[in-house]
Specification:
With 175 residues, the protein is α+β, with helices and mostly antiparallel strands. It is built from four helices and four strands; from the N terminus they run H-E-H-H-E-E-E-H.
Length: 175
């Protein structure tokens, strides 16, 4: 009995379904749409918060502590101050830089991941100055598929690129 798909075609179809699933699960910024750098004006530094590290990402060796350490390294490299991880000086760093890493495993050796940086700041509703809430004001992210063996290198490289983008936008409005 001959099957309508070869094994290779079935694997490609499975990966395409995985890619569609990832796109449905994680909203990603539209290609070509950039965050507004002006929202970073006047920020004196960031509190780094790890918003999400999915269970598959944890199983594959990523932790909140590691992501925080990488974030602080990249912020320093871009000459942007970072607050403490324990949140003890929240008033000194009212802007929050959230990092989220979500990984989806496929039975083959391919993984899909979404990595996002998001700056949140206190905003005021124009119609009433009494309402203050945290809202995202700058977001960049990536959605990528990689072989399992290349996950760490790919995430670290993507994180560096996202921080470089943040650094460029930050310097653009704060220099």
């Amino acid at each position: 009995m001959r099957l309508p798909f070869s094994v290779h075609q079935a694997a490609v179809a499975g990966l395409c379904r995985l890619g569609v699933l990832v796109c449905l699960v994680w909203p990603a910024p539209v290609a070509g749409v950039r965050s507004d750098a002006t929202t970073l004006f006047g920020i004196e530094g960031f509190r780094v918060a790890i918003a999400a590290v999915s269970l598959p990402a944890r199983r594959l060796g990523f932790s909140e502590t590691q992501l925080h350490a990488l974030a602080v390294t990249h912020l320093r490299r871009n000459a942007i101050p970072a607050g403490p991880f324990d949140g003890t000086h929240d008033r000194d760093f009212p802007a929050v830089l959230n990092i989220a890493l979500r990984v989806v495993e496929h039975p083959a050796s391919v993984l899909a991941y979404a990595l996002e940086l998001q700056v949140q700041q206190v905003v005021h509703l124009k119609r009433t100055e009494q309402v203050h809430l945290m809202a995202p004001t700058w977001t960049e992210g990536t959605l990528t598929m990689v072989p399992r063996a290349g996950l760490r290198r790919s995430v670290e490289s993507a994180l560096a690129e996202l921080f470089d983008s943040l650094g460029r936008d930050y310097r653009l409005v704060n220099s």
